[in-house]
Request: fold
Amino acid sequence: MMRGWKRWSVLWAVGAGLVGCGDSGPKTYDVTLDAAALGDATRVCSTTGTSQVGAVDIPAQQRWTIRESGFGGSVLQVPDIHYTLEGSLIELDEEDTEPDAIEGTTFDQGPYEYVLFNTYVQPEPRGTFYQALRYTIADTELGDSISGFIWFRNELAGDPNTTFPDKECTLTFPLTGRRVED
Reply:
């Protein structure tokens, strides 16, 4: 009887070890945003069409870490989000320089998306701005390299007498990344 117990214990331990060998640990990437897009960003607006807005203050070199979260989801950790885009400040938390974490889509299969929403009231031009900042990794799995983009959307809803020419504008910044050891 003891011999049978040992054999089943060994088989169980081997099986449990194999099940736990998946690559579900954190994945860290050195990410590079397209320098041309950051240096002279292209804005696409609902009313005025496409125009150049000049340089933006998103760091071109970033380190991202993607971790599995509860219920099969994922969390993207990026350097502190404190950008000025379209004259609007985008930040996840005020007066903090620590990396920011954004909940996202599933960990096991891409594409992967992480979205922040922000709302603020602006006195001139009068209105409420609705902002979205989306980090997208377009790949179907988190391998040795990634590609995707950061997308920003700014929408004004408010006073019909405002002189703000565009009600909705977007900016897109392509990116690539290489996996580094965790």
